[in-house]
Amino acid sequence: MPGNTHHCFNYIELPATDLKAMKSFYGSVFGWTFQDWGKTYVAIHGAGVDGGFDADTIRKPSKDGALIVLNSTDLEGSLQAVKSAGAEISVPIFSFPGGRRFHFIDPSGNELAVWTMADI
Question: Whose C-alpha in 45, 55, 93, 120 is 20 to 30 A from the C-alpha of 21?
Answer without folding.
Answer: 93
